[in-house]
Amino acid sequence: MQSFSSQRRRLVSLLGVAAIFACNAADATRAQAASATPWTASTNSKVRLVAGEVGEQAGRARLTGIQLRMDPGWKTYWRNPGDTGMPPEFDWTGSKNLKSAEVMYPAPRRFDDAGGAAVGYGDDVLFPVKLTPERDSEPIELKVAFSYGLCKDLCVPNEVTLSINLPAGGEKGEALLLENALAQVPKPAAAGLLPEIAGVEATLEGDAPKLVVDAVFPQGATGIDLFIDGGDAFVPVPKPLGAAGDGKQRFAVAFDSAEEAAAIKGKTLRLTLVSDQGATDTMWKAE
Q1: Which of 58, 92, 139, 209 has its CA 20 to 30 A from that of 233?
Q2: pLDDT for residue 170
Q3: Is 244 strand, coil or helix?
């Protein structure tokens, strides 16, 4: 029979082991809380924030990402939603120690239906967000009100509010998920990088105002397309003119009126070329 003292030592030892496991579990919970929020359900979809620190040429970047997962058959929208829908909006009011939040958009795709052409995403999309704190040595208390349209047969506006605390030192967190999302963001145009804009012809006056855009894609590229964001000026969804040949494709943007075309004069447009082999952004000023 064990003595009372030996039983007591064994009990203390067991309590110590339990305390260690409890501390480890608490640490795991804190780490999980710092790298992702629970999913928040909304109309036929769910949303969460993920966070992590990923590598850059100039060091490390603190990122978060707004991940939207949709039920089959539903879609959401790009910064220019096309003929129907609403673009996503991000309101960071209420965040603490946040100087700026730069939202990046993965390359979208075209959805053609009876209402025209929409531009956006289906299934699952993650918008990476580069965060700049006001003070590097302090954590960021991040809060975002995320508004988005969700469409199938009808379009439904949604808004969810999410928050997450990001430590000052940074953590790897969901780095792999964020790096994969960053890889889907179009790269800035650069010499020798395909796809590229070969030329833009603008006719913004007269009875048939239009833009004609010539683009060059990698040989054999698939899923090629062009989308244009005019900021606060609406730009119709471009249409391909004929089939691509030798990696070259021409697109046309037909404006409904001279007034619609005149609204882009003096504006800098973002021309986004997409393909399954990569995507690029070119900034072009409409004269």
Answers
A1: 92
A2: 64
A3: coil
Q: Is the peptide bond before 195 cis (omega within 30 degrees of 0)?
A: yes
* Nearest to 127, CA basis, from 163, 165, 77, 57: 77
The pLDDT score that the predictor gives to residue 127 is 98
C-beta atoms surrounding 183 within 10 Å = 11
CB-based contacts of 170, cutoff 8 Å, min separation 6: 53, 60, 62
Q: Assess whether pLDDT exceeds 60 at residue 196.
A: yes
Q: How far is CA 95 from the centre of its chain?
A: 20
Contact 209, 263 (CB under 8 A): no
| Residue 98 phi, psi dihedral angles, 5° rounding | -120, 115
Spatial distance between the Cα atoms of 164 and 251, rounded to a whole number of angstroms = 42
Angstrom distance (rounded) from CA 247 to CA 59: 36
- The SS3 call for residue 27 is helix
Which tokens belong to 287?
Answer: 């004269």
Longest dimension (CA), the chain: 104
CB atoms within 10 A of CB 77: 24
Q: Are 109 and 225 in contact (CB under 8 A)?
A: yes
| Residue bearing tokens 């009876």 | 114
- For 259, the 3-state DSSP assignment is helix
C-alpha to C-alpha distances, 152 to 121, 122, 144, nearest whole angstrom: 12, 10, 25
Report the half-sphere exposure of 176 (CA within 13 A, side-chain side). 0
DSSP tag of 245: B
- Measured distance CA(182)–CA(104) in Å, rounded: 8
Give helix then strand counts, H and E, for the chain: 3, 19
If you write DSSP's letter for every residue of 182-202 in order, what string do you get?
HHTSPEEP-TT-SSEEEEEEE
Average pLDDT over the chain, rounded to an integer: 86
What is the mean pLDDT of the segment spanning 3-13? Answer: 37
Query: Structure pTM?
Result: 0.84
